[in-house]
Amino acid sequence: MISLRGVRKVYGDVVALDGVDLEIAQGTIHGIVGPSGAGKSTLVRCLTGLDRPTTGTIEVAGQNLSALGEAALRKARRRIGMVFQHVNLLDARTAAENIAYPLRIAGVPAAARTARPGRRLPVAALRRAEAAHRHRPRARQRPGRTAV
Asked: Mean pLDDT per 10-residue run, the chain (148 residues)?
């Protein structure tokens, strides 16, 4: 469950969000749409704890994100999923490598990283895209960089 109550976000003189109240049931999928400047990105940044609201509360799975310290907030973010309009995958990586990358950042051991993406790619279309991607020329790896 995601719950926003009286969320307001102000940047200087600009009010990006003003009195947002919203309830999203667990297990549902929603999109945020609207014209440029409507506050979509600000709302997503607040929902993920990347920005804190000026006033109001945001609860995800019973946790008030606004009240969490940085370490607890990083841990809570691992349980929040989102897909941006412009996905921003790393072109030089396969779909599985793009999924494994944040696991590496989170400190997941290499053996667990290679086992997990397969469970994250249940859709046949993604598997076909992975196979097609594997056969295209890859960008050269820069010295000092290691693959996932």
From this structure: 93 94 86 86 87 92 87 83 62 74 78 64 55 57 47
